[in-house]
Amino acid sequence: METTTPNSGNLGTMGSSGTGAGGTGMGKMNPAQAADRAHSTVDRVAQGAHDTVDRLASKAGPALDRARTAASDAQTTLYSKYDDFMAMEEEWAESARDQIRAHPLAIVGVALLAGLLIGKLSS
After folding, report:
1. Would 19 be classed as within a structural domain?
2. Residue 66 or 5, more confident
3. DSSP states of 4-62
């Protein structure tokens, strides 16, 4: 005695439309079709990512150029100011030497008074 259930041979198969019960269009698809579909999806995602990277790069390039130019300008200005400061320091040192040579006793007296004043304030 053989018992069969209706549709027992069709378990896990789709109808003839290939859309299945969910209607996703992913019904009976052979492995080659699935691979083609996956490859197509990966290609679309990769192209979208490539386009996004290109867009960002086109915006970042000019910004990097501006930053590079600003840094170069700042470096030039700093070096120029440093050179000016060193020249001014040399002028002041030379001026102080000239004053010490011209008035040695006055400079000794000023130094003595400054020392006494500092000594009184610190005690």
Report:
1. no
2. 66
3. --TTGGGTT---TTS-TTTT-S-SS--HHHHHHHHHHHHHHHHHHHHHHHHHHHHHHHH
pLDDT (tens digit, 9 = 90+) per residue, 22-39?
A: 444 556 778 888 888 988
d(CA 21, CA 28): 12
Matching residue, tokens 């002028």: 91
- Residue carrying the six token digits 């990277």: 53
pLDDT above 60 for 8: no
Q: What is the pTM of this model?
A: 0.42
* 69 has a pLDDT exceeding 80: yes
95 lies in a domain?
yes
Residues 6+ apart with CB under 8 A from 37: 29
The total number of structural domains that make up the chain = 1
Dihedral (CA of 12, 18, 23, 27) sign: positive
